[in-house]
Amino acid sequence: MTELILPSRADAASFLPKGAVVPMIIAAHGEQAAWHYLNFFAAHIRNSNTRAAYARAASSFFAWCEGLGLALPGIQPVHVAAWVETLSREGRSAPTVKQQLAAVRMLFDWLVVGQVVPHNPAAAVRGPKHSMATGKTHMPSREEAKALIAAIETGSLIGLRDRALIGMLLYTFARIGAVTTMRGGDYYQVGKRGWVRLHEKGGKEHTMPVHHTLEEWLDTYQKAAGIAEDRKGFLFRTGEGRTGRLTDKPLAQADAYRMIQRRAVAVGVETRLGCHSWRARGITAYLENGGLLEHAQKMAAHSSARTTTLYDRRGEDISLDEVERIAL
């Protein structure tokens, strides 16, 4: 697929994710179309992860259209529907196809408002049906979670950091993106109790009191790192090579994921864990201990209780017990 970035106004082009460029099918329609495409990502999509995902979807769609020899005004609903069908046949999951269709639909809405195209060809196209009762996130068992945390070396600064980070995911039900962007001032005291401030998706600011275990882990980590008074610096920071010291840079989500993977392997945890695994473990543990779903929803900053139930794995053990009843 031939693509380009217009040589002028590089500031607008910088809003595209790294490696993404304006599709030729857009640029061929004129400078107005190209800048409306750029402004969709610059002005309309604020979350960087969403921006990257939508840019990939748009590039995929327009590359497919270009392969058919289509021009921008010639794209019709039948073409969008055929592209969706192609994605499904290629083995893409239903949620992925629905997300990519949503990206293309939103982009064309923007182009219609900007009078680049007369109508939205994706407006009437339906994505594949998809319904989930339980999330796909792999969750450690209670024993696996305890073993992994117990194995973290607390004699090193990196170990204290990792324990505090995992604890933040476990005890606050936070997303990893909200945790890695925390500043020192996002952990603060209200009376004698510590509180955390989490900046979640959609610009939502979520605050909640800290579990006493997490409070101990955070205090120990901050004291050892000498960052307890640094309110503006990042709370969870990268290590400085093999020195055991910390830098002033934030720990990346990918590094947190690799850390959890590495520690899981070290203690022989068979479940494939990720950052979200601790969110599921925390919500499930809370509900197992008599917590209420509506309270879990608020603690997890979910807009809908249906989302919270995806992290509730209490029924998995029951299902396994019933399956084991099958015997000849």
What does this structure look like?
By secondary structure, the protein is mainly alpha-helical. It has 2 domains: 3-113; 142-323, Intergrase catalytic core (hpI Integrase, Chain A). Helices cover 52% and strands 9% of the residues. It is built from 15 helices and 7 strands. The chain has helices spanning 10-13, 24-27, 31-44, 48-67, 77-89, 94-113, 142-151, 157-172, 176-180, 212-225, 253-266, 275-288, 293-299, 305-309, 314-323, and strands spanning 3-4, 22-23, 187-190, 193-199, 205-209, 237-239, 246-250. A 3-stranded antiparallel sheet has the order 3-4-5. Strand 3 and strand 4 (193-199) form a beta hairpin. Helix 8 packs antiparallel against helix 10 and helix 8 packs across helix 12. The longest helix has 20 residues, at 48-67. The radius of gyration is 23 Å and the shape is globular. Keywords: Chromosome partition, DNA integration, DNA recombination, DNA-binding. Pfam families: Phage_int_SAM_1 (PF02899), Phage_integrase (PF00589). GO terms for molecular function: DNA binding. This is Integrase. Residues 32-112 form the Core-binding (CB) domain.
